[in-house]
Amino acid sequence: MKRxxxxxxxxxxxxxSGVQVNAQTEGQEYILNTESAADKQERMAWWKEARFGxxxxxxxxxxxxxxxxxxxxTRAAEWIQRNANVSADVxxxxxxxxxxxxxxxxxxxxxxAKQAGAKYVxxxxxxxxxxxxxxxxxxxxDAKDVTGRDLHKEVVEALRAEGLRVGVYHSLWDWHxxxxxxGKGAMNVSGLTMEGRDxxxxxxxLHAQVNEITDGRYGDVDVLWLDYSKGPYQGEVWRAKQLVxxxxxxxxxxxINNRLWQxxxxxxxxxxKYWFGDFSTPEQHIPATGxxxxxxxxxxxxxxxxxxxxxAVEFKTSTELIHRLIDAVSKGGNYLLNIGPLPDGxxxxxxVERFSDIGEWMQINGDAIYGTQAGPFSRLPWGRATAKxxxxxxxxxxxxxxxxxxxxxxxxxxxxxxxTHGSVMGGKAAETLRMSKARGGVVLxxxxxxxxxxxxxxxxIDFDQVPSVAPYRVHAATDGSxxxxxxxxxxxxxxxxxxxxxxxxxxxxxxxxAEAQFPLQVEKSQSYxxxxxxAADKIxxxxxxxxxxxxxxxxxxxxxxxxxxxxKTLDAGSxxxxxxPITLTLRCATIDEASILKLATITLKPVASTP
Length: 611
Ligand code: FHN
Description:
The chain is of the alpha+beta class.
């Protein structure tokens, strides 16, 4: 509901010439919180314990269902206004009559999250389209004015009723506000410019709406999820320091994500500073080796859209989602899994099924997720590990086994300490594991031949000290093959990239004599067929590479695959690997300077020896 005069009053109140930033921050630009590291950890404690949250993208865009006229959208359906290039007036006129939330939609979200084992929910209060779910004094483009219901309040109350923490997503962009960023460098409908727009009026509006959702009228806010900054639109363009100060004054315990800044590589390297936000937010990807020294949360989609599109029919399977949850947590992160409710706020059956499956897995294995930290292994051939302190100096490792060994025996590669106790979560109490040091690690024997859960069965192993783990070597998976990932390599004169949204982890920028070295532990000397995932472009003369380990050597050529993002699997012949701890070296012999050449996973499959 819009109350004229309040905008001016609010601006005065907040002193838009600049709210006083804590004097202790003088000279330490952007450090907006002077609490000690221990206090920060205390503030983050519930979130680190939670590990799993549910994201909700729902707004007017949900009613478009991924269709505008004859155009259809499977990816990012919440961007339909911009991607179909619809003016704010036409969008509003078309979408408002369609917006008819069901009476009990919010309680359905809350019970889905609760049932899945999520401990917090972050929902879109306002996405880029600019429509707010709360009763805003700043605009009539909000749920209360349109439906007579304060939908923000309904959601918050439903979440609290289920004991869930409340996270609020609020877009920094706004495709409805007449003064919001437009034109060059701005994310807005195309053809608009900044002419006649007054960015400071929009920033006042942004601050005023953020104030409304955090000033206590909706109770405590546990997380504020601001989205997002890019290029020229970041930091002080949003009057970020002042905004953070406002939020922290309103809600001293709140956690704020990192997206008031773009977080360029330089900014990322300057870690530990609070202008980062309280946590970092990789989107649709799980960093290969976590993010050292920083709290982070991967947000992820079920398919390839955040907002509902009836055309986005390809969903990740429940097993893939459970693996992604475990993967994030095993690297020290949180996992925020999105749902895109239907126009009336209800939830489609495929989403319900996946969240129920996750919940069923969490019922058995929740202890291996909640309150855990990254496991001590760089990578495990059969799954992942999480870790927890269990009191009196004791430690527990949770081994999340994705590929269950049919022979009842599992090697935990690199583990140097024999556990004092081990048990299969959800398994029969009578099962006792035998555990001994062998084959460069600890071997668990006496496991049931069938997994408890097809997606991942967890073995909890306990220690009365911090377990020691040998430096990392890639071990063979249960079927004897090796998967060498880019993150496993020590790279010289080429560049390793962790995967970014929609892009794969890879090693690129190869030069002649550049090398990637992989540490392997080979149990049996034998011949392995080599397959390499390659994307290559602009190669005139084929690039040549050599793989070697000790005396063994194999050369192969790489041709263009038709594009720098066109991935193909290259058969690179076979190589005889010696047994023991070895280094497999991939060396570039020749390459044109202008080539684009990326290498991702290398797979070594044992070649059956002829009798
Ligand atoms: O543009 C948005 C997108 O629609 C979605 O909300 C995601 C969630 O992290 N954030 C933005 C892109 O980074």
